[in-house]
Amino acid sequence: MLKFISFGSGSSGNSYYLFTDTDGLLIDAGVGIRAMKKYFRDYGINMSMVHNILITHDHADHVKCVGSISHDFNIPVYTTAEVHKGIVRNYCVQRKVSVDLVNEVEKGVTYQVGEFKVTPFGVPHDSADNVGYEIEHDGITFCIVTDAGEITSEIKPHISNADYLVIEANHDEEMLKNGPYPAHLKKRIMDMTGHLSNKDCGIALAENMTERLKHVWLCHLSEENNHPELARKTVETILRGYGIIVGKDLDLEVLKRKTPTGWFELK
Fold this sequence. Notes:
alpha/beta, 9 helices, globular
C-alpha cells in the first residue's frame, strides 16, 4: 500500500515522504537531518528504506540537508541539471551531493525510480529551476506542485491526472498587501515566479481537477501572510462555487509548517 507523510511544509523547511512496504521516495530535504532522523524513529520507519530523493528546486528550505541525507544513507538524488547546479552554489547546503549520487532528469520525460514512475514538469518560480512531480505507483497517481508563481498550461494536465495532490496555498492576497513585508518582497511573492495565493490555488483546483481526485493537501503556507483555517476556507468556498463539495467530492487538509502529519494511506 502507498503511504504519504509530510515532515514539514513552509519556509522553515519542506520534506515529504512517499513509501510502500518495500520502497521509499523522499521529496525535498529542507528539514534538519537530526529532526528527520527523529521523525523516522517516531514513526517506526527505518531511513534505510529511503531509496531515492527527488528535489523540486534549489532554495534552502527545500535542499539544505539533501547532501547530508544522501551521504549518510547513500541515496541517489534526482532533479534537473540546473537544480543540481543550484544546489552546488547554495551556501546553505554545507554538504554537497556526491557526484556519484547525482541523477539528472528532464521535464516531460517519465523515469522509473525504484518502484515509482516519476514525471517531472516545469513550475514557474524564481529559483535556478523548479519542477513538480507526477508519481505513479500501482495505478495510483500522486502529484506535488509547490512554490508556483502561477498555474501554467504545463501544470494543469498533472492536476487533472492526480488521485492525490499536494499544492501550494502560500498566502492570502489581502494579508500580504496589508502586511509588514517591504514592497519589493510583496512584489516578489505576487509575481508570476513567486508563490501561489489561496485564491489562485482554489481556482486551479476547481478548473482542473477531475472526479478521480480524492485528497488535496495545501502546502507551503506563509506564517505571516496566511492562516491554515483561512487557506482551507478560501479554497473550500471557491470549490463550492464550482459545485465541488469538500468532504463529499474530495478531502481537503492543510499541511503543518513545522511538524509532521500522521501518515496517510493512499488507496
